[in-house]
Fold this sequence. Notes:
Helix 2 (45-58) crosses helix 5 (141-162) and helix 4 runs antiparallel to helix 5. The chain has two domains: 1-30, no CATH class; 31-162, TT1751-like domain (TATA-Binding Protein, 2-Layer Sandwich). The chain has helices at 10-27, 45-58, 69-76, 96-105, 141-162, and strands at residues 35-41, 62-67, 85-94, 115-122, 125-134. The chain is of the alpha+beta class and 165 residues long. A five-stranded antiparallel sheet has the order 1-5-4-3-2. The chain contains five helices and five strands, in the order αβαβαβαββα. The longest helix is centred in the last third of the chain and has 22 residues, at 141-162.
Amino acid sequence: MFSVHLFGTSLGASHFFLVFLVLLGISTPTIADDTVVVTVTHSDFRTAHDGLIEAIESEGLVVGNTLPFRDMLARTAVGGGAIPYGEAEIIQFCSSVLAAELVREDPRQLTLCPLSVALYSLVEKPTEIHLAYRSPGGSTAGRRRAESLLQRIVRRAAGLARLHW
Protein backbone atom coordinates (compact mmCIF):
# COMPACT_ATOMS: atom_id res chain seq x y z
CA MET A 1 0.00 0.00 0.00
CA PHE A 2 1.32 3.49 -0.90
CA SER A 3 0.99 6.46 1.46
CA VAL A 4 0.67 9.94 0.00
CA HIS A 5 1.52 11.56 3.31
CA LEU A 6 5.09 12.82 3.30
CA PHE A 7 5.88 11.19 6.63
CA GLY A 8 3.76 8.11 5.96
CA THR A 9 6.89 6.00 5.73
CA SER A 10 10.40 6.34 7.01
CA LEU A 11 11.49 6.53 3.37
CA GLY A 12 9.28 9.59 2.84
CA ALA A 13 10.73 11.30 5.91
CA SER A 14 14.27 10.48 4.80
CA HIS A 15 13.66 11.93 1.35
CA PHE A 16 12.08 15.04 2.82
CA PHE A 17 15.06 15.73 5.09
CA LEU A 18 17.55 14.97 2.33
CA VAL A 19 15.82 17.46 0.01
CA PHE A 20 15.58 19.97 2.88
CA LEU A 21 19.30 19.73 3.64
CA VAL A 22 20.20 20.09 -0.04
CA LEU A 23 18.01 23.19 -0.37
CA LEU A 24 19.44 24.61 2.83
CA GLY A 25 22.95 24.20 1.42
CA ILE A 26 21.95 25.90 -1.82
CA SER A 27 20.27 28.86 -0.12
CA THR A 28 23.12 29.54 2.30
CA PRO A 29 25.50 32.14 0.90
CA THR A 30 29.10 31.16 0.57
CA ILE A 31 31.30 33.12 2.91
CA ALA A 32 34.49 34.30 1.28
CA ASP A 33 37.68 34.44 3.28
CA ASP A 34 37.78 38.20 3.69
CA THR A 35 39.73 38.32 6.94
CA VAL A 36 43.06 40.16 6.91
CA VAL A 37 45.45 39.23 9.74
CA VAL A 38 48.74 40.88 10.66
CA THR A 39 50.83 39.10 13.27
CA VAL A 40 53.31 40.87 15.52
CA THR A 41 55.88 38.67 17.23
CA HIS A 42 57.72 39.39 20.47
CA SER A 43 55.17 41.83 21.81
CA ASP A 44 52.48 41.78 24.44
CA PHE A 45 48.75 42.33 24.32
CA ARG A 46 48.68 45.63 26.27
CA THR A 47 51.34 47.23 24.06
CA ALA A 48 49.51 46.12 20.91
CA HIS A 49 46.19 47.34 22.34
CA ASP A 50 47.66 50.76 23.12
CA GLY A 51 49.26 50.86 19.65
CA LEU A 52 45.91 50.11 18.03
CA ILE A 53 44.17 52.88 19.98
CA GLU A 54 46.99 55.30 19.03
CA ALA A 55 46.73 54.28 15.36
CA ILE A 56 42.97 54.87 15.32
CA GLU A 57 43.29 58.24 17.04
CA SER A 58 46.14 59.29 14.72
CA GLU A 59 43.59 59.10 11.89
CA GLY A 60 41.46 61.66 13.75
CA LEU A 61 38.96 58.99 14.79
CA VAL A 62 37.48 58.09 18.15
CA VAL A 63 37.15 54.57 19.52
CA GLY A 64 33.45 53.91 19.93
CA ASN A 65 33.57 50.63 21.78
CA THR A 66 35.95 47.98 23.07
CA LEU A 67 34.39 44.54 23.23
CA PRO A 68 36.14 42.15 25.65
CA PHE A 69 35.61 39.12 23.42
CA ARG A 70 37.69 36.56 25.34
CA ASP A 71 36.04 37.57 28.62
CA MET A 72 32.60 37.21 27.02
CA LEU A 73 33.45 33.69 25.87
CA ALA A 74 34.78 32.78 29.31
CA ARG A 75 31.74 34.28 31.06
CA THR A 76 29.15 32.55 28.91
CA ALA A 77 31.10 29.26 28.53
CA VAL A 78 29.25 28.55 25.29
CA GLY A 79 30.34 25.32 23.65
CA GLY A 80 32.01 23.95 26.76
CA GLY A 81 35.43 23.71 25.08
CA ALA A 82 38.67 25.44 25.84
CA ILE A 83 38.95 29.06 24.77
CA PRO A 84 41.83 29.45 22.30
CA TYR A 85 42.57 33.06 23.22
CA GLY A 86 44.99 34.26 25.86
CA GLU A 87 43.38 37.66 25.35
CA ALA A 88 40.96 38.98 22.72
CA GLU A 89 39.21 42.28 22.14
CA ILE A 90 37.36 43.90 19.28
CA ILE A 91 37.91 47.63 18.89
CA GLN A 92 35.17 49.53 17.04
CA PHE A 93 35.48 53.00 15.53
CA CYS A 94 33.84 55.06 12.83
CA SER A 95 34.65 57.83 10.42
CA SER A 96 31.55 59.94 9.85
CA VAL A 97 32.93 61.14 6.50
CA LEU A 98 33.59 57.60 5.32
CA ALA A 99 30.26 56.35 6.69
CA ALA A 100 28.40 59.08 4.78
CA GLU A 101 30.23 58.18 1.58
CA LEU A 102 29.50 54.49 2.00
CA VAL A 103 25.77 54.94 2.54
CA ARG A 104 25.48 57.45 -0.31
CA GLU A 105 26.95 54.80 -2.59
CA ASP A 106 24.57 52.14 -1.31
CA PRO A 107 22.33 52.41 1.78
CA ARG A 108 23.00 48.71 2.55
CA GLN A 109 26.65 49.56 3.22
CA LEU A 110 25.65 50.78 6.68
CA THR A 111 26.55 47.22 7.68
CA LEU A 112 30.19 48.22 7.25
CA CYS A 113 29.87 50.74 10.09
CA PRO A 114 31.37 50.84 12.58
CA LEU A 115 34.69 49.52 11.35
CA SER A 116 36.44 47.15 13.71
CA VAL A 117 39.79 45.53 14.33
CA ALA A 118 40.12 42.39 16.42
CA LEU A 119 43.19 42.09 18.60
CA TYR A 120 44.08 38.70 20.06
CA SER A 121 46.74 36.34 21.28
CA LEU A 122 46.47 32.58 21.37
CA VAL A 123 47.02 30.63 24.58
CA GLU A 124 49.94 28.64 23.15
CA LYS A 125 51.73 31.73 21.75
CA PRO A 126 51.12 34.70 24.06
CA THR A 127 53.90 36.84 22.51
CA GLU A 128 52.32 36.64 19.04
CA ILE A 129 49.68 39.33 18.80
CA HIS A 130 47.24 39.23 15.90
CA LEU A 131 45.46 42.26 14.46
CA ALA A 132 42.59 41.22 12.21
CA TYR A 133 39.80 42.88 10.29
CA ARG A 134 37.20 41.96 7.71
CA SER A 135 38.03 43.57 4.42
CA PRO A 136 35.22 45.72 3.06
CA GLY A 137 36.42 44.88 -0.44
CA GLY A 138 37.07 47.23 -3.30
CA SER A 139 33.87 47.29 -5.31
CA THR A 140 33.20 51.00 -4.67
CA ALA A 141 35.30 54.08 -3.95
CA GLY A 142 34.04 54.15 -0.35
CA ARG A 143 34.94 50.51 0.21
CA ARG A 144 38.43 51.13 -1.21
CA ARG A 145 38.86 54.08 1.17
CA ALA A 146 37.66 51.93 4.09
CA GLU A 147 40.14 49.20 3.13
CA SER A 148 42.94 51.76 2.89
CA LEU A 149 42.03 53.19 6.29
CA LEU A 150 42.00 49.75 7.91
CA GLN A 151 45.34 48.89 6.31
CA ARG A 152 46.94 52.12 7.59
CA ILE A 153 45.58 51.61 11.09
CA VAL A 154 46.70 47.98 11.33
CA ARG A 155 50.11 48.72 9.81
CA ARG A 156 50.70 51.60 12.26
CA ALA A 157 49.39 49.56 15.22
CA ALA A 158 51.70 46.66 14.32
CA GLY A 159 54.66 49.04 14.11
CA LEU A 160 53.84 50.52 17.51
CA ALA A 161 53.41 47.05 19.04
CA ARG A 162 56.91 46.11 17.85
CA LEU A 163 58.39 49.03 19.81
CA HIS A 164 57.77 47.17 23.06
CA TRP A 165 60.81 44.95 22.67
